[in-house]
Amino acid sequence: MAPPHIDVDMNNLGKDKPMTYFVDVAVKPEVTLGDVEGIKATRVDTAILDGDVEAELEHRLSHKSELLPKKGDTLAQGDTAIFDFTGYLNGEEFEGGKAENHQLKIGSGQFIPGFEEGMIGLKIGETRDVPVTFPAEYQAENLSWSTRGL
User: How confident is the model at residue 128 (pLDDT cuts 50, 70, 90)?
Assistant: First the structure.
């Protein structure tokens, strides 16, 4: 509950005059409980597993952390790279295969197999072709080797 608000009437203050003030207070409303007979409630499982705690801590740490430049100049497992890339299929750029200033933690498994591994050892400013094979069940059918007949 909020504390009371007191307002003193300053216009009528004086010797031998009663002091007038106003007080605003919040009061709890009267509540009449209706018929609750027959209402059913289900208990929600609130068990917290060790893995849940670890996952939440990791999530909070990753969102509050600051990305700092690496002291060395070669990209290694666990490093975060910020890079531009363009994907080609049979010598032609393909839709959705290009990005600028893309951030990727090497070893996170966010890219198709072989891509992150192919970046290890890159130096700042260096470019490299990283040949990869898209998985058979890749979501973009035009890139999936099962639909391209490989």
Answer: very high
Residues 113, 131 contacting (CB under 8 angstroms): no
Give residue-wise pLDDT tens across range 52-95. 999 999 899 888 888 888 888 899 999 999 999 998 888 888 88
Q: Are strands 5-8 and 80-89 parallel, antiparallel or unpaired?
A: unpaired
Distance CA 98, CA 91 (A): 14
Task: Determine, yes or no, domain membership for 58.
Answer: no
The residue segments making up the domain with residue 116 are 70-148
User: What tokens appear for 48 in the block?
Assistant: 């917290």
Look at residue 20 and tell me if it is in a domain. no
* Angle, vertex CA 76, rays to CA 78 and CA 109, nearest 5: 50
Q: What SS3 class is residue 77?
A: coil
The string of DSSP letters for 80-133 reads: EEEEEEEEEETTEEEEEEEEEEEEEETTS--SPTTHHHHHTTPBTT--------
**Residue 31 falls inside a structural domain:** no
Q: Is the dihedral of CA 113, 118, 122, 126 positive or negative?
A: negative
Beta bridge partner(s), residue 80: 105
CATH number at residue 131: 3.10.50.40
